[in-house]
# Entry
Amino acid sequence: MTMSLFDLPGIAESWQEPLAPGAVILRGFATPDETALLSALQAVIAMAPFRNMITPGGFRMSVAMTNCGSLGWITDSTGYRYDAIDPLTGRQWPQMPELFLRLAVNAAAQAGFTGFVPDACLINRYEPGARLSLHQDKNERDFNQPIVSVSLGIPAVFLFGGLSRADKPARIPLMHGDVVVWGGPARFRYHGILPLKEDYHPLVGEQRINLTFRKAG
Ligand code: SIN
Ligand code: FE2
# Structure
């Protein structure tokens, strides 16, 4: 019998791609859990549906969002913040599924951030045309903690810029199963998503789901 590297489960499917000091892409890291992740996601959105939030400037976001975990990120006419209560349902956000937590902790550790325990998972749904303009993540309390971002579904182009809005961002294709981790010297890098192109993914359909884990409180 001949064995190649690609016969070894858990090794060939996932590899690391350095992005910048403090930032790395774990290609395919979430793929082994894809089915369980998507069914846990269904349970979350049954309790806290996707909605298009309004920015402080009065614009309706093209990305639909919801959250799970003890804190959720929200925006409305009064600003951006984390809140324990979903303003749409008046109830707490759904608990973070065990699998979500485990995936985020393991991805952070792979990237060198041991001890990361997220309390917030922002769930973004991009349909074709949806985009996320360049921004920094800075509503969290402890900036020593990284951001862990999981891509599922159709591909997207991730913009990964510098510490200044004017720095020209790199354009990085993100595919189903990819996980990006950024922290330390990369924690305040500007990032965003280009308008999504139409495509189809056999498990997720004509959309991209992004799970962004943070230690918010
Ligand atoms: C985010 O910055 O919150 C999401 C990035 C992504 O969708 O990959
Ligand atoms: Fe972000």
Notes: The helical segments are 34-47, 98-110.
